[in-house]
């Protein structure tokens, strides 16, 4: 196996999410080498050329199309390939199609690289993160799913608009499944350190409880609405992936709601879900088991049970 290049990223899948992820990495100066790999080599080459032509506007970076042998020394391998979610289709509807695809992808990765970090973006991301861990044989700390990083950003953004305060001053998490059973952690949501229940009475815009419920519903349904309107989501998820990549390549010890193997957290085992997690150059440093409200812990366990049932019905 080749020696790992700590600044090299491989992106598998040059579709909307993969190409936009490469763009987000490039313009933020994350990684000095980015290789795009796709079953359609012409598509990967076209995207790489388009990105290369902006080289004079960004930090030095080598972007090119390659094949699986080119990821041998990659520190981070981002997997965006797979069937896309269609209008009216849930993320879990994709599971059978994409699990089979992933088995082949992971086998191709491990043929050349067994020391990097795998970052799964393809949906249903929690189930595919779990099977990526199973298929790869990698330590659990080096298999990460993008999880509810995007959902948590949507949550903060919608609260920001509702409360008329900058999103950077809104702190809150969505945990559990990246999907219909996701759980908003209202008990820990705060604005500039003030719990949301205490902030609403002093907010310049009078918040009502039903507005907060609508926000969590809007977060849950956001992808469906975007897919209905434009066919796919990729800008925000690409920014979320870039955020995770930055935490890894720059050894940040950042707290992000990524999906990873559950090993007894809130009584959940042997599956992947999202919880606030410390991320650094080793991958997952620690999953944080925070003091959830009773109803939130119950909802998290119900989310786990739903995905567990789906996993049981998958045959590879």
Topology of this protein?
Elements: E1 5-12, H1 16-27, E2 33-37, H2 41-52, E3 62-65, E4 74-79, H3 95-112, E5 117-120, H4 125-136, E6 143-145, H5 149-163, E7 170-171, E8 174-175, E9 183-184, E10 190-191, E11 194-195, H6 196-199, H7 209-230, H8 235-249, E12 254-256, E13 259-265, E14 268-274, E15 277-280, E16 283-287, H9 294-312
Parallel strand pairs: 1-2, 1-4, 2-3, 4-5, 5-6
Antiparallel strand pairs: 7-10, 8-9, 10-11, 12-15, 13-14, 15-16
Features:
single chain; 316 residues; alpha/beta; Rossmann fold; 2 domains; three-stranded antiparallel sheet; 21% strand; globular; allosteric enzyme; EC 1.1.1.27
Structure description:
It is a single chain. The protein has 316 residues and is α/β, with parallel strands linked by helices. It has two domains: 5-145, NAD(P)-binding Rossmann-like Domain (Rossmann fold, 3-Layer(aba) Sandwich), CATH 3.40.50; 148-313, Alpha-Beta Complex (L-2-Hydroxyisocaproate Dehydrogenase, Chain A, domain 2), CATH 3.90.110.10. Helix content is 41%, strand content 21%. The chain contains nine helices and 16 strands. The chain has helices at 16-27, 41-52, 95-112, 125-136, 149-163, 196-199, 209-230, 235-249, 294-312; strands spanning 5-12, 33-37, 62-65, 74-79, 117-120, 143-145, 170-171, 174-175, 183-184, 190-191, 194-195, 254-256, 259-265, 268-274, 277-280, 283-287. The chain has a six-stranded parallel beta sheet, sandwiched between helices. A three-stranded antiparallel beta sheet has the order 7-10-11. α2 (41-52) links the parallel β2 and β3. α1 (16-27) packs parallel to α2, α1 crosses α8 and α5 (149-163) crosses α7. It is globular. The two termini are 28 Å apart. The model has no long low-confidence stretch (mean pLDDT 92).
């Amino acid at each position: 196996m080749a020696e790992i290049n700590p600044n090299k990223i491989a992106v598998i899948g040059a579709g909307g999410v993969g190409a936009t992820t490469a763009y987000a990495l490039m313009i933020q100066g994350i990684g000095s080498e980015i290789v795009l790999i796709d079953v359609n080599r012409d598509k990967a080459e076209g995207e790489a050329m388009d990105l290369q032509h902006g080289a004079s506007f960004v930090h030095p970076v080598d972007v090119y199309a390659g094949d699986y042998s080119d990821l041998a020394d990659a520190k981070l391998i981002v997997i965006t390939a797979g069937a896309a979610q269609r209008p009216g289709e849930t993320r879990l509807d994709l599971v059978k199609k994409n699990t089979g695809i992933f088995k082949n992808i992971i086998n191709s990765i491990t043929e050349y690289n067994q020391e990097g970090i795998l970052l799964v973006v393809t949906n249903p991301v929690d189930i595919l993160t779990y099977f990526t861990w199973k298929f790869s044989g990698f330590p659990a700390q080096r298999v990460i799913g993008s999880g509810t990083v995007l959902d948590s950003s949507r949550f903060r953004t919608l609260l920001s608009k509702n409360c008329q305060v900058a999103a950077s001053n809104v702190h809150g998490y969505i945990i559990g499944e990246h999907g219909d059973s996701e759980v908003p952690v209202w008990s820990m949501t705060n604005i500039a350190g003030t719990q949301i229940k205490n902030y609403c009475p002093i907010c310049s815009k009078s918040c009502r409880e039903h507005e907060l419920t609508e926000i969590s519903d809007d977060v849950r349904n956001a992808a469906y609405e975007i897919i209905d309107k434009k066919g796919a989501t990729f800008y925000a998820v690409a920014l979320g992936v870039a955020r995770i990549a930055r935490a890894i390549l720059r050894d940040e010890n950042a707290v992000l709601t990524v999906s990873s193997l559950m090993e007894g957290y809130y009584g959940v085992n042997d599956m992947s879900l999202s919880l606030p997690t410390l991320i650094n150059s080793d991958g997952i440093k620690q999953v944080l088991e925070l003091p959830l409200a009773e109803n939130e812990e119950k909802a998290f366990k119900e989310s786990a049970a739903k995905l567990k049932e789906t996993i049981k019905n998958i045959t590879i």
